[in-house]
């Protein structure tokens, strides 16, 4: 419970840039490339944080790394809220926030893996990521609404206190939880990549890399696309809530249900279904800009559901395919590859919008279709990786209990 509440609070700052993007585009006079670059800075910092925190969690303990990162994220969230007032300052401060936030993610998954049996692990990871999706919903809704009504400064401040609240809640909540140290790291970085010699681990890592490209690009730019759609005559009122609900409430539902579904149906079946559905959404939604809002919003909700639906399954499958003593290293390598690719996705979409002349003005234009089609490449690749996995059967509760 403490981990889930903490995940919600930390996630309040995660989507503040995307939610306030229409307001900051106007206030700072940014191009699409500059706006995408700020998100890319966060993603690169987040990737580096994931790598370092996952790597050291084996030798220092997941609980210790998680708590250190929670307090660092609290300080960085307040710094961004108070001092990000231009594209340059926003780039560096948002990158700093990303550099601290990654340590609240992978170690929390490791804590779940340490304490939950295999037949319930998918559901447990799903609840953890579902709490994060609920935080993303609140982040988008608050940032979009406050930035339009009061100003982006208010949006930054309200969302920026989320990591502080998360740290204050989770520290006493984990007080009785032991800090399990697997052991000192044996060998160098080359040894950390050895888990990729296993075919299942290789396909899961490749699928995660493709998944991260699609998901991070979608998270950064789908709110702006929906803002443009809702701004036209006949659009919906209260756009912040509509946008946040379409993307992140559906993602929350996906995290809560797909992890449990993979416990019952097997990891491979759910991964194939979610990746294929996400690819179809990426390749379609950008070309739907002239269609009625009542058609676009359900497609956006389906996009949010499918793009996040494989997250808890990929994470759970990785904990099962990797020996406990190497799990931190495996998650670190996965982060290098996944967020290395996903980190540049917002910039790629922004450049596509600039090339079509629609990025900085957030108007309807052909650039949206091509931008989201770039993300669809990741969805197609993730589908192929999932399809190549060997068929698996749901774990028997009794057998998983004996193995645990």
From TrEMBL:
It is a multi-pass membrane protein. Gene3D superfamilies: MFS general substrate transporter like domains. The keyword ATP-binding does not apply. PROSITE patterns: MFS (PS50850), SUGAR_TRANSPORT_1 (PS00216). Keywords: Cell membrane, Membrane, Transmembrane, Transmembrane helix. One of its GO terms (cellular component) is plasma membrane. InterPro entries: MFS, MFS_dom, MFS_Efflux_Transporters, MFS_trans_sf, Sugar_transporter_CS. It is found in: Cell membrane. GO terms for molecular function: transmembrane transporter activity. The chain crosses the membrane at residues 38-58, 65-84, 90-113, 125-144, 150-171, 202-222, 228-249, 269-287, 293-315, 327-348, 368-390. The keyword Membrane applies. Residues 1-394 form the Major facilitator superfamily (MFS) profile domain. PANTHER family: CHLORAMPHENICOL EFFLUX PUMP RV0191 (PTHR43124:SF3), PURINE EFFLUX PUMP PBUE (PTHR43124). This is MFS transporter. It comes from Azospirillum cavernae. The lineage of its organism: Bacteria, Pseudomonadati, Pseudomonadota, Alphaproteobacteria, Rhodospirillales.
